[in-house]
Amino acid sequence: MARKKTPVIRRPEVRLPPLSPYSGRGLEPDGDYDGLEFRGLDFTGQAGSGARFMDCALTECSLDETDLVRARFIDSVLTGIKGVGTSLAGASLRDVEVVDARLGGVQLHGAVLERVVVRGGKIDYLNLREARLKDVTFENCVLSEPDFGSAQLERVEFHGCELRQVDFSGARLKDVDLRGAAVLDIARGVERLSGAVISPDQLLDLAPVFAAQIGVRVEA
């Protein structure tokens, strides 16, 4: 039998135009930001729900408790962003690179991610419940207790990542490549891995979890 070929992930090709420094005082709900560079700005507690960022660069910005519900990021690069409790519920990210982020408790439930790369950094308690991910790549990052509950993942891959205490409960996976994960620690939802590909070594590591799922006792 011929081995099924793993589909090629479509990666973002972000080519930013010359950018103008952002000179505003802060974010605004439903704000329209085009061709701007946000560098070293503190948006703690600010409200930018429904805002649109197109051809933008956010570099070393603080997003503690920032409200970006239903915000849209298109053809943009987010580098070194940091924050706790950032709300991106229902947001849309298309053709976006997220580099060296340091985030905790970021809310992305119900969000849509398409052609997104998350490279480097560490994200704790990432909430992607009921989100839709398509052509998304995680590279060399640490995801601590990420929640993919009831999410849809299609053509998603992990390279050099640490996936710690991940929750796939109720998730739907299609062409998800977990073989490159440096750490694959599944807390819940191992029965939802249909549609994913893992390596032989990962299968051995996950054997106790699979056995527990089907009620098999392993004794010497």
From TrEMBL:
Ranges annotated as spanning the membrane: none
Protein origin, superkingdom: Bacteria
Entries under Pfam families matching the protein: Pentapeptide_4
Entries under InterPro entries matching the protein: 5peptide_repeat, Pentapeptide-BTB/POZ_domain
Name this protein carries in UniProt: Pentapeptide repeat-containing protein
